[in-house]
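anyone else get weird line breaks when pasting these?? whatever heres mine. first is seq + tokens for prot A
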Amino acid sequence: MMRTPHISVRPETGKYLLTVALPLVSVLTVTPLLIGFASIRHPHHFAVSSTRHASTSPRTDFETGSRSRLVSTSSSSLSTGGSLQATPAVMNIRQGEARYGAIATGMKFEQKFEQKFEQKFEQKFEQKSEQKSERKSNDAVDDGGSSTQEAKKSEKSGKAEESGSVNNAEIDPVEDYKSAMALLKNHYYGETIDKKKSRQLTYEAIRGMVGGLKDRFSSFLDPEEWNQMQATTEGDFEGIGAVLSRENGNVRIVEPIETGPAEKAGMKADDVIVKIEGVSMIGQELHEVVRRIKGKRGTRVHITVQRGKQLVELSILRARVEPPVVKYWMEDSHDKIGHILLKEFNKRSIDQMNHAFTELQTQGMRALVLDLRYNPGGLLDSAIDVVSVFVPENFRPELHNVVVYMREGSGTEQKRLINPVETTYSHRIPIALLVNDGSASASEIVAGALKDYGIATLIGERTYGKGRVQTLIPLQDNSALRLTTQLYFPPRHKDLNFKRDEDGNRIPGTGGILPDIEVHQSPKWHPEDWNDKTNDAQLHASLDFLRARLNGETVAQATQRILQTH
């Protein structure tokens, strides 16, 4: 069921104007892709099952729009080996004919061109050749002396350059693309450019076009990738339920999803996939392993894993999987300090958080550790809902109930406000919010808002620094564009975006949100090993802070205490 639009289209800009009304999903994440049967870890240890999971996920802002055409321009460089001198020659044939760019070596281009293409373009080519010959003849017959001839050549050259610039300005890139595709189909020497190959080439052209933006957060999604991303936004999918990572040439199980088919079949973290249906997976790429594991719900897949020195055979029944994005427990049963770990923001995040609130409050929770470490983001709506759970309306009048400001390319800003949300969170208690370099995008919206409203004290390390919104725009063939369409700012309007070097890469130590209490993690603690309480320095700091608050100290006093002792 699609939700009612929250952000309306701006008709004066036509920014999201497409030809058919479709939902546009606003996503906030740093992860590239969700694989339908499982989450795949980003090299920097971000969970890909969370994409909008900006890049693709849970709760959605829908905007109306229409379908955009597949439009692409591409440029390529061509080099010749050896010492051959490549001579470019271009022929413009307008109105449904071809626009050729050719490289000729060793022979005159005109001769080869006529020999190869005279049958297809005979009439119009001859017309243009005759016109060209007449112009050359007029130049040759000129009796006005060398100076006059050179002057005419100069004049003609100037007019040609002027005419060429006008023609180039008038060229429609879409027509160029169509002409190029037609040429490939009709004249390419290699494999036949059939319908399937044409689609593949079109996808690559779009990827190249989007890649030319040099925006790591914008991308093209083919139908399979788009379907996977939609599964992420819903918060469930069909498959075996496992998080995978490729390391040292092999695919490893990061973790089986709790209560999922893989866990039920006995799959364990750190298992290495050796075979699938008897076929060796050693050295295979991650996408190939994923392809072989995926299948219809209700069917089985047979996977051989290496566990230490032992080979284990697993038969896993594919099923619908709803990965828990929330984990919770009573961290300190004496002082009644609860711990809620939110892994990503999707459509099921609020429901799962409400369940956690109910259980912890039943146990008498008096303070809370809200953990957003390694949370790569998710849906914008979900982030706003989470903030709305904790921040009462009109709590700080000077902030006007703003959760986040959204700025479009035109400079126009929109406000997203605290909204009524059903929650079991019943009373305000001291909150320590844990963040680190893996807390990104939607996580930063929540962290920024709770900090600006004074609801939570941030403890840990500088967040990732991604203040950009991606909109997922479906195309006609069930592919989609994921485009950066807005910047966002927390209630006090701080720019979160990291700085970039000349190649567009992130410069560490820039952007993000600085914690109120900076605590560097112990090198002995393994990322996301939530069971290792001993070496989790940031958790220790948050517990000490909350105990001080429960003992009557103010936020400032408790903060100063932790800064002196950690």
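and prot B, same format (seq, then tokens)
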Amino acid sequence: MDSQQAQKLYDSGKEPVVAKLLEYDKKSTQLEEMLALLEKSLSTKSYELTLPEIPDEDMNPTVAALLNVIEAQQATMQKMYEGNQLAKDEIARLKKQNQKPKIKPKNRKKNNSTDKNGKRPGSKKISKTKDLEIDETNIIEPDVIPLDATFHSYRDFVVQDIILKKYNIKYRIKRYLAPDGSIIQGKVPAYLQGKHFGGDLICFCIYQHHHCGVTQPLLLEQLLEIGIQISSGHLSNILTENKKKYHEEKQRILNIGLKFSSYINVDDTGARHNGKNGYCTYLGNEEFSWFESTDSKSRINILTILRCEHTDYHINSQAIAYMKEGGLPKSKLEIMTASKGLLLIDDKSWFKFLEKNNIEKPRHVKIATEGALLGSIVTHGISNRLVLLSDDARQFAILIHALCWIHAERLLAKLSPLTDEAKADLKNVRSRIWKFYDKLKTYKGNPTPEAKAQLEAEFDEIFTTQTASPMVNDALKRLHKNKAELLLVLDRPEIPLHNNSAENAIREYVKKRKISGSTRSEKGRKCRDTFTTLKQTCRKQGITFWRFLNDRVFQLLSIPDLSVLIQQKFDDQSAEAENI
């Protein structure tokens, strides 16, 4: 009996479990003691048990089955206990009663060693103001100067400061009357676009809101305190209106990123909008970051994102192969095969085609739509060798899918085996996995066919290990089924072993969700995605977001389009690879 069978027995109720086990063997010397222990655990709130030691000669199928039942039952009770505790903690927090104690961090050992001059190691003074640009110089005289004193020298003392105050400008536009009666007049700077707020103020508002996470009410209060006369409506317009050029640059980042990347990290998280649940999807790698908020996180959603700005559906060989693998019925698949090469320009045309061919069941519509979207993606130049690295969220299992080792190992980390032997087995298995992980990192730097074969064999050896815990065995079995996705790095050494970069990037939305809750307008949601994309891509390209905003707002054109910078990086990498 495995752990799943044991769980089914346990879920059916206490008496059926006991009765079923009694049918196995009534002669075991340990059976009555084990049954009593199970009775006790089922009738009390305790979820921690200490099992008696069972001699090898008494470890018959009945006892092993009973151990499986107890372990499955204990795992269920542990989850219930932890969930209940979380609910209690949240209720206590809301009522401000019996909150968790604040545990002070451990004090790190201080390095009190000093050199012969009495300085700590690494405390060598480095001039921090040597290359500073000086904006103002003030000469300071002594309070009292003796009559016979002569000037000796200056001692410079540099102070860094910031000026944060209102700065109102009046443009006096000269107007001239031409002989023909027409009026000729000067023009205000083009970047103002006829608005009454200057470029530095616009940059400041966008930077504070989208980069520093300052909410609109707090930003409005800050501006009013500084002396800026602005309404909440005007502030909202600065943050969301007339941002077409930013949205277009964001889209070009995705187009170039997908065209030249060999892999992308992907992840999603909750992003409420207008009081309703929504999701934000992240795509990116070392060269770019890209975010899009939608109402769904299905596979159709991620395929639509990968299709970029295109709206078509294409039935080609890739689409048909996907539909066949997805289990589309033979009769429907024959319709798709007969329609190979068909290109439908938009959603309306696609769903009309499905209706015409009696493809109406939700599952069939889903598989066919996913396949046609995949066909469109490949048609528009995205390589079908593009790797998507995820945390095992199945909506991302398209094209070539790789798995994050950190998330995979968590499947074992969260287990709590019952016996000491099982705990020792789990510890040993996890240790072997992390040693194997280190070997994969070494392989990435120097891939060879011999090392590949050795690592594949070692993977099988680790993940087919039989331990004393059925739960651990089931987890290992599940991970072994994902061998191709976990060991994709052996064929594609350039891809990362983990998805931490995606986790870190999308944390931006988690923080915003905690501070602001959700966006309200469609323009607000779109601007949040756009400026988060631009900010994080600037960071990866070595450009400060403040400098980027100044360049775009004042139309300086000193910073190329970010998609151009990304393509240059990919071109440089390709040239370097060819020279090796």
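btw re prot B: DSSP finds 22 helices and nine strands in the chain. The radius of gyration is 33 Å.
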